[in-house]
Amino acid sequence: MPVPIRPLLLGHRGARAVRSIPENTLESFDRAIADGCDGFEFDVRLTEDEEAVVCHDAKVSGYEVSRTPAKQLSRLPRLRDVLQRYRDSFLDIELKVKGLERITLDLFLRHKPRLGFVVSSFQPGVLKSVHALDATVPLGLICEFTTQLRLWGELPVQYVIPHHALVDAELIRKIKGAGKKILVWTVNARADMERWADLGVEGIISDDTDLLCRTLSARSRGDGRSEEE
Known about the structure:
single chain; alpha/beta; 8 helices; two-stranded parallel sheet; globular
């Protein structure tokens, strides 16, 4: 009997379930990789002086990121540092705001991920802008609601990244039938991890990177190599 193909195992903002480690930090990304993940998803925003920094919320420690110079947000990782440090990991780079498109592409010239990557966003305009600048960059539409999900066929994306509550076998069939890949978020229950893997999704994003890897790492890799190789 053939060994089931394993999807990409990706941490959500790193290893978010580990409460002792702040999310979207190098320490959290390191933990996701140490747990056995192929890579991770993380969020990028733009400072007042146009530095790409890693954070989820629009405000950090009372500072509005878009109206604050990078030097006042020194605790936030820089996108350039993440790209350089994790070149051998799969990166799901979520652009939270407009204005990051050219900056991100310029950084790829020096620090392009080698294992693979996707530039993702909830915002169709951001994805269209990246595509207009460089049509070779793999893009992903993130969807939390059905109104967002309806747009995937109209956009120049290679990945559809829906919330797990939106996903069923028929959606997976349609997306894969259209030649696109699907990453499901945020999957934190063992049974759901196994179900989406059995249905052939290309990646699973989880807060609980330890559980994700313990549940699915025994399967063969999607590139045909076993875990022992």
